[in-house]
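Board notes (copied after class):
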Amino acid sequence: MNIHSTLFSCGSIHIITAQPEVGPFIDPQYMEHPVDQLFLATTTCQSLQLATIASLFEALDKVILPSEPLSTDEKYLEFDRQTLESFSY
């Protein structure tokens, strides 16, 4: 599990109407800041390396990682965006 409790990405909430029954527009802008993207790509790469250690692999309940190392941070970030979820928002 990759955990980053303080994100640099800042979202926004906008009231779109004066009618109280209509909810606001929420744009979390999740992972939009380059530092957040680099951090997530790096920790996913390191997690994959840790998961290959036999004693750690045996302790893992479920592995959600690329089946083999990816070649660039951009590919790790794309994998993260397709696979992982935020529980911050």
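Comment from the instructor: The chain has a mean pLDDT of 78. The chain has one domain: 12-83.
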